[in-house]
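hiii so my PI (J.) wants the whole complex modelled not just the main chain, which honestly fair. so below is everything: two entries, each one labled with what it is. i double checked the lines twice but i was tired so who knows lol
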Amino acid sequence: MSYPAETVGILGLGLIGGSLARALRESGFSRRFIGYGYREPSLRRGVELGVIDDFTLDLGELIDRADILVICAPTLVAADLLRQILGKLQGVENGPVITDAASVKGNLLAAAKEACGGNVPPRLVLGHPIAGSERSGVDASDAALFRHHRVILTPVEGNEPAAVELVRAMWQSTGAEVVSMSVADHDEVLAATSHLPHLLAYALVDALAQSDASEDIFRCAAGGFRDFTRIASSDPVMWRDIAIANRDALLQSIDLFSEHLGRLRQAVADEDADGMQETFTRAKAARDQFAAILAERGQRSKAE
Amino acid sequence: MSYPAETVGILGLGLIGGSLARALRESGFSRRFIGYGYREPSLRRGVELGVIDDFTLDLGELIDRADILVICAPTLVAADLLRQILGKLQGVENGPVITDAASVKGNLLAAAKEACGGNVPPRLVLGHPIAGSERSGVDASDAALFRHHRVILTPVEGNEPAAVELVRAMWQSTGAEVVSMSVADHDEVLAATSHLPHLLAYALVDALAQSDASEDIFRCAAGGFRDFTRIASSDPVMWRDIAIANRDALLQSIDLFSEHLGRLRQAVADEDADGMQETFTRAKAARDQFAAILAERGQRSKAE
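here's the output for the full assembly
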């Protein structure tokens, strides 16, 4: 039997890395999974669970053995790992294909260009699976995590077409829907749909927690508030790093939001009933349409 | 058998009014329920469903027959109904106790004082059940809607203690947890936990829907975005009216939030990792504590 990529190196074995290894083993995309990371207990646990076959603490060894390297570490660690990998591949002709699963793409592309004298490594294809779970760590890994979820690839000029195809095929074999966009578009879209909402939720909960009425506020809040603020329970270090990595797109996104909020504030202050109703109605229509997209995706998922 | 209030007049027979009538019939708080409203089909449907015994389109008749009047209409309609009721009760000594279920209290208190030459009617006790459903209308009414939910009463100086007690006993008989606070505190707390989040969700979805990348944005958004923006699917007219009725507290709330968002924006711009992590960590702690309160409430509800 032949495999699209015999050996996969997973850098960072948590929920995402572990779920990817499980999915690729199940789909028959690869037959050997080698873990690498800074936390040996996670790697040992991965072997115990049968998620990976083996692990190494030697990055050079990993690079030598793997056909494809998938960096599944948090945003800033991912950039650091990418720099190390590219450093070791200087002058190597046929190295492994390299991809990742981090939340921001611009900082990784910049790190790669810096490590390669301004050029994009032909076999580096950045990607981002839009999937997650409230649980974390390799124990929570799940072969079905990516099924019917989007994976965004951000290929660039200079990429080897075969490398792009391999990364696309890898994610498709997990059951994900793979789409492509530019690095800038990815970071803008993610700033808008994920990074900004996290910042707003953190800002709101922090503002209320510091107010004099905070006890009454949390005692009397209901379901709408619960849903709206759920993402404020996310990992502070992870979101700090994402905010740093996607600084420019996030700032643009904050400014766009603030401008719209400022207009709504003015409508409230002016008791501009028509203006408010117009905005709320337009927003409701967009949100209802988004809910329909999600419902359709859910239907497809159930129909299997 | 004797009833705390023999006859209840429900003004506005939708989800809230219908659920209240069902709950009070089940608890034995009252034995007769009379509907009143502008939409006769809802009232006919209420009789058909056995939610109310009877209805009238004559406000004077309703006032004459009821021991307690509960205004269950939307915010601005509620203020209008209250003015009409108080107009008809001018000079009457022992009228019915009056209460309501609207989302804002300050505008109703102001309307009442205006209708009564600056005085608070002794038998008017404003209230607000923090409960709802994605469904609406009398067909969705449910005797268990208020169970384990908060009801906030805002009694004022000049209220007859017996009237306050009757309204408290009414809500307690539905299984709700009744708390009291001042009108100003109520409106401030609700602005923070409900009215502001709705405005933020509307502003965010509207900003994104109008952006050039809106198609990619909604196509690539995931679970966190879905939860965060769910309330942007709420009724635009209802929220327009709430924003008008609670204008001052809402503006304060927007300004407090904007100040905090501005500080976070600065931290992002400065790549102030410590500042961001501190804010995110504080917010996460507050949100986790809130989740614990909700989980405990859920446990009590299941234990029945």
